[in-house]
Design a protein that fits this description.
Structural class of chain B: alpha+beta
Number of helices of chain B: 15
Distance between the termini of chain A: 6 Å
Radius of gyration of chain B: 32 Å
Helix content of chain A: 55-70%
Shape of chain B: globular
Strand content of chain B: 5-15%
Radius of gyration of chain A: 19 Å
Number of helices of chain A: 6
Oligomer: heterodimer
Shape of chain A: elongated
Strand order of the largest sheet of chain A: 1-2
Order of helices and strands of chain B: HHHHEEHHEEHHHHHHEEEEEEEEEEHHEH
Number of domains of chain A: 1
Distance between the termini of chain B: 138 Å
Order of helices and strands of chain A: EHHHHHHE
CATH class of chain A: Mainly Alpha
CATH architecture of chain A: Up-down Bundle
Largest interface: A-B, 33 and 35 residues
Helix content of chain B: 10-25%
Chain lengths: ~200, ~550
């Protein structure tokens, strides 16, 4: 017997998908700026990458405000509860058709590994990309900021490393959404807000 | 006393003037005299010039009667002395002293080279550099286009009909110097170009960014000199004071950080007014402000002069003197042309290659230029000898990325003494190379004139000379785009010391990054495949058990 829980509110879903689209676009345009291939043309890629960065910054302002005012930020506080069970599920149980060990509720939307992964994305990948990206955006003002001797290469390398981490995160994330209670239950919940839990 | 009739006329005139929108001053009925607005003097009216002149110096004497200080001013300039001591390096430069890899050097060839001297009669070392009447006013101030100075005449114009070249049977008509003198005016693209378009011995040969196509260029060729647009002359940027024309190839302004010139601002009168920044400021890009960041490290010329020799005149790219001197079966010198009629082999000079629409090379340049001069030891080999060396690096805080024409060649040198040489090429005598085709004798004469030792052993050394590019500025829509440099094989592929997005990467970060993404993909694919297989197994089992 299944029950339905309302996991993701309207804003949350909008935030998620807008952010997903922006990140995918920024990966595509960013690696073009990096010289990995030609698609939009360098000038257009830079222009749109920059525009997307500002849009994402704007989105984040709203998202941070939303997380703080709703208390939803607690969803990302790491926990060890059931973490071993989750690891065992991904490593063994999932192949045997064992039931998913984590039952999401609106207070605990993410399983402990998700919490950890999103927190890592938030505190490692995010800052790496955003600090280096902001420095890139304000390259013209480095002198005024007292950063005249900062080599652009370092900033570029950090930004590239962040992009590769984000790309790896995205690949893993896209796969792991199929590992819910059913293949599509997690995807559906991020579209409709409702998740069916066994 | 005013008669009634004239009062009537005045009244009528004022009515007409009113209807014509005339000013109150015009109402007096006296039409303002038609005058030339760009000068206060009409030289056709000067009584000093109502005569014929038998020689250049006679004209100059007439000029100096009014322009009393002009000759003295010219005497102080490089145009006159052909000598320049570089204050940074103390090198003794100037056309008189340097050696290049075009026609090589001036001493012993002086009367031919000095057809481009702003003077009369410099044929050898006896020339009097203090002579005022030997200053050539007309070569810069002619507006008729009829004033010419032929090679071999030591800077003298053809004042009377004469056979030229001597013994050729061809008669060159004498120039009416009086007519030229009565029409003098400001310098023009034609007057400056008479020499500067033809550097290196012919149209466009030397610079690549200066040739006769700039005499009347369209906008695409030069946005400033566009003859039907802004119509700048050379002097619009190279604005001279006291006949001293600013802008130097010996001490160029590689980087100008002081913004647009402002009249009255302290020090601005001592700045080079011929830089881009002198008018356009350091942040010239209004719509695309991001480009102003580029302007901190990249000379304007790099993007705004996408190619040189764009006006239909080819520039020489290489010159190999080592193949000179071949004669045909009849013992006559050879002249070989390409399909476009350009000389690519001349027994007098060797092999050439030429090119149009040439993409320049790019270097860090801080304005310091060091020459290899006569007497400097050279090291012949695979690495070419640098005729001039442009200083600069990414990190010196003074350099910008500049476009340069690099002129490559091979030229004679003294094998025993390991020095460049100054051959005697032009002349109608027993040793001139262009008449006799013998290097040792030509070099011996030349080196004697230069006062330098010569062992008699002649070899050929590979040489390179760099010419910073600054003319033929294209309209902005023809400037380089981002991808011209922001790619691995872009124009700045050879520029070191800076990170260029799209060109550069950290190999290890890229390797690790793609590996991480690839392994993640592999991991999830393996995990998914295993799920699929196991899931099917379970389905089959449950199907069998049911």
């Amino acid at each position: 017997m299944t029950r339905r829980v309302y996991l993701f509110k309207g804003f949350e879903r909008f935030w998620h998908w807008a952010q997903a689209a922006l990140i995918v676009f920024m990966l595509v345009s960013g690696f073009e700026v990096h010289g990995s291939y030609r698609l939009l043309g360098f000038a257009r890629a830079v222009q749109l990458h920059t525009l997307a960065a500002w849009v994402l910054i704007g989105l984040w302002v709203f998202a941070i405000f939303w997380h703080l005012t709703t208390g939803e930020w607690r969803q990302y506080v790491p926990t060890t509860d059931k973490i071993v069970a989750m690891v065992r599920f991904y490593a063994v149980g999932i192949f045997k058709g064992d039931p998913h060990p984590f039952k999401p509720t609106s207070l605990h939307k993410h399983n402990p590994l998700q919490r950890l992964a999103y927190l890592l994305a938030l505190v490692v990948i995010g800052p790496l990309i955003w600090i280096s990206g902001a420095l890139y955006l304000f390259y013209g003002d480095w002198g005024a900021l007292g950063l005249a001797n900062l080599p652009l290469a370092w900033v570029a390398w950090a930004h590239t490393a962040g992009a590769f981490l984000m790309l790896s995160f995205l690949i893993a994330h896209l796969y792991l959404i199929t590992t819910g209670h059913s293949l599509t239950s997690q995807l559906r919940s991020m579209i409709t807000g409702w998740e069916e839990v066994a | 006393m005013t008669t009634p009739r004239s009062v009537h006329h005045l009244a009528l005139a004022s009515v007409v003037a009113l209807f014509a929108g005339g000013s109150a001053g015009m109402a007096l009925g006296q039409e303002a005299k038609v005058v030339k607005l760009n000068t206060t003097a009409d030289h056709t009216k000067f009584k000093e010039l109502q005569r014929t002149f038998a020689s250049g110096p006679e004209v100059t004497q007439a000029c100096l009667q009014c322009h009393t200080e002009a000759a003295g001013q010219v005497h102080r300039t490089k145009h006159w002395t052909w000598e320049f001591i570089n204050p940074a390096s103390n090198q003794k430069l100037g056309k008189k002293n340097v050696i290049n890899n075009f026609c090589i050097s001036i001493p012993s060839n002086t009367p031919f080279c000095t057809s481009c001297h702003v003077g009369y009669g410099w044929k050898d070392t006896t020339f009097d550099f203090k002579s005022e009447q030997n200053v050539d006013c007309l070569v810069c101030h002619d507006t008729t286009g009829n004033y010419r100075k032929l090679p071999g005449l030591a800077g003298n114009p053809v004042a009377q009909d004469m056979e030229f070249p001597a013994g050729s049977g061809k008669i060159v008509k004498g120039i009416d110097l009086g007519a030229v003198a009565r029409k003098v005016g400001k310098s023009s693209r034609d007057t400056c170009g008479a020499c500067h378009f033809n550097g290196g011995g012919g149209d466009g040969v030397k610079h690549g960014d200066m040739d006769t196509s700039l005499a009347s260029p369209d906008k695409a060729l030069d946005v400033h000199m566009d003859a039907s647009g802004l119509d700048f002359t050379c002097g619009t940027c190279h604005k001279a004071s006291s006949h001293d024309v600013p802008g130097s190839r010996y001490t160029p302004s590689a980087r100008d950080t002081k913004g647009a010139l402002v009249r009255g601002r302290e020090g601005d009168d001592k700045r080079n007014p011929a830089t881009c920044v002198a008018c356009h400021d350091n942040t010239p890009h209004k719509k695309e402000a991001g480009l102003n960041l580029h302007a901190r490290k990249i000379a304007c010329q790099t993007c705004h002069i996408p190619a040189i020799a764009r006006g239909g005149v080819a520039t020489k790219m290489t010159w190999d003197w080592s193949t000179a001197g071949k004669l045909d079966d009849a013992g006559q010198p050879i002249l070989r042309k390409d399909t476009k009629g350009r000389v690519v082999y001349d027994s007098k000079k060797g092999d050439f290659t030429l090119g149009e629409n040439i993409v320049p090379e790019y270097v860090w340049f801080n304005g310091e230029v060091t020459y290899t001069l006569l007497g400097d030891k050279i090291v012949p080999g695979d690495e070419p000898t640098r005729i001039n060396r442009l200083g600069g690096s990414a990190g010196d805080g003074k350099s910008m990325i500049w476009p340069v024409k690099v002129f490559r060649g091979a030229q004679p040198y003294d094998v025993a003494n390991q020095t460049l040489v100054t051959p005697h090429t032009a002349g109608n005598d027993d040793t001139a190379y262009w008449k006799n085709f013998g290097w040792p004798a030509a070099i011996k004469t030349g080196m004697q004139t230069s006062g330098a030792p010569f062992s008699g052993q002649v070899g050929f050394v590979k040489t390179e000379m760099s010419w910073p590019i600054t003319h033929m500025v294209a309209p902005k829509e023809n400037a380089l785009g981002c991808a011209d440099c922001h790619q691995a094989a872009g124009r700045l592929a050879g520029i070191d010391g800076i990170y260029i997005p799209g060109r550069d990467r950290h190999a290890l970060i890229d390797l690790a990054g793609w590996a991480a993404a690839g392994l993640t993909l592999l991991g999830v694919a393996g995990h998914g495949a295993l799920r699929l297989v196991k899931g099917r197994g379970r389905a089959a089992q449950s199907g069998a058990s049911s």
